[in-house]
Structures are given as C-alpha cells and as structure tokens.
Design goal:
The protein is mostly helical and 185 residues long. The chain is 64% helix and 0% strand.
C-alpha cells in the first residue's frame, strides 16, 4: 500500500499541468497561479485522509483549486478600489449617452463565428485583462465558466445589485475596447 506522500507525488506529476492551466486562466498571473497549484498539493497532502476515492483525484484537486482561487480573490478584494471616472462625469451622470452602433465585421469572418478567429480572441483577452481585476474575474466566471450569479456573489462577497452593476459596467468597457481595437480598426 502506497503512502499519502507517494500518492500525492504521483498526482503532482499527473495533474500539475492541467491545474496550472486552470489557475492561469482564472488568475491571469503566472506566479500567483503556480503558488495556488502548490497550495492545492499541500492541502491535498495534509487532508489526504478525507479523500475517499469516490471520484477521480483530478476532480478533488480541481475542487481544492476552486476554493483556493475563491479565497485568493476574497482576500485580494476585501476593500476594492475601482475607479468609475471612465463611466461617470463630475456630476455623477453617464459620460456617454449616445446610441450604441451595430457592430459590423469587415473581415472575412462573420459575427457568428468571431470567437473562432484567433486574432479576435487575442483582442478579447486583452480587453478582459484591461478591466479592473475584480470585473474581469466576474466576467470570466459569468460568461466563460457559466457560473450562476448567486455563486459568483458568494465567491466574490458582493451583493446581487453590485454584481449586476459590475456586469453592466464591464460590458460597456469591453464594448468600447472592442469597438476601438477590432470593429473600427
């Protein structure tokens, strides 16, 4: 019978790359992602006795990673500093009250297949990375991971009203960035 240390060492070899890819995607900081994955394996080793082999070890490790990432963002954003100057003037009114133009893609790609375009995906990733970190995380959790608003609110420790406001403002900022860097290029 193998010891817990030997078992976890095999998991490190087998699952490190997959967990690191997940962490990089959710954190967008390579060093932080590596630290989180290391914490996952340390947690797995220290709580190995609670693993009952009822699921694949990767499933258990990914659950630990999700908790680590949630804790990371909770700690990082207990007192968020978000600058709303982009959206509001000195009086608190929206800066842009104009009608939103329809997007037209001048390239050979149709709008329906735009996410298949690697160039567009690069621009979209850049747009997400330019959002305030909390906003970008919320957008990724909502649209890329398909998490429910209640779960996102709990993980990010925000109210539903705050969730919808951040989502709305993030969409506006993404739209502006995409218009400048893709559609009006």
């Amino acid at each position: 019978m193998r010891s817990s240390t030997e078992e976890v060492a095999q998991w490190v070899d087998a699952y490190s790359e997959h967990l690191l890819n997940c962490a990089n995607y959710l954190v967008s900081d390579g060093v932080e992602a590596e630290d989180l994955v290391q914490e996952v394996f340390l947690t797995a080793l220290s709580s190995y006795d609670s693993f009952q082999n009822k699921s694949n070890p990767l499933t258990w490790l990914k659950a630990i990673l999700n908790h680590k990432i949630a804790d990371y963002y909770k700690k990082k954003y207990k007192t968020p500093l978000i600058n709303f100057d982009y959206f509001f003037d000195e009086d608190g009114s929206w800066k842009k009250n104009q009608e939103i133009d329809e997007w037209e893609d001048e390239s050979s790609h149709s709008l329906e297949n735009l996410l298949d375009n690697p160039e567009f995906n690069k621009i979209l990733r850049n747009a997400l990375n330019k959002l305030p970190t909390k906003w970008g995380l919320l957008m990724k959790m909502c649209y890329l991971e398909g998490k429910k608003s209640s779960e996102i609110c709990q993980v990010m420790n925000i109210t539903p009203t705050n969730y919808w406001k951040i989502l709305q403002r993030s969409r506006m900022q993404l739209r502006e960035y995409l218009e400048i860097n893709w559609f009006n290029k």
